[in-house]
Each structure stands twice: as C-alpha cells, then as structure tokens.
C-alpha cells in the first residue's frame, strides 16, 4: 500500500478533497410511445431497445 513520505498540509488536503464532487447526469428528452421523458444521456439506447421502461 502506498504510504505518504511527508505530512500533507491541511489546506492542500482540503483543496484536493474539494474537487471530488459528484455531478448530476445530463438529462436529454426522449419520446417513446408518444410519451416524453428526461433520461440520462448514456441510458437512451437502453430505453430505445426496451431494456428500461418509462415509468411515472
């Protein structure tokens, strides 16, 4: 396991940790069977193939 050679300062640690934020997925409108819904861009092919359903 990697072990740090020197102690990292508090400001450097917090600056590094602050960049690890989750981003919301980009939603795109998709129309199936006359219904329009916003779905994540990467799941559009699954919806078109029928692997996922538009519920609610």
Descriptive overview:
The chain has 56 residues and is an alpha+beta fold. The chain has a domain at 25-56. The protein is built from two helices and two strands. The chain has helices spanning 10-18, 44-49, and strands at residues 27-32, 35-40. A two-stranded antiparallel sheet has the order 1-2. Strand 1 (27-32) and strand 2 form a beta hairpin. The radius of gyration is 21 Å and the shape is elongated. The termini are far apart. Belongs to the bacterial ribosomal protein bL32 family. Residues 1-23 are annotated as: Disordered. This is Large ribosomal subunit protein bL32.
Produce the secondary structure layout:
Elements: H1 10-18, E1 27-32, E2 35-40, H2 44-49
Antiparallel strand pairs: 1-2
Keywords: Ribonucleoprotein, Ribosomal protein
Protein name: Large ribosomal subunit protein bL32
Family: Belongs to the bacterial ribosomal protein bL32 family.
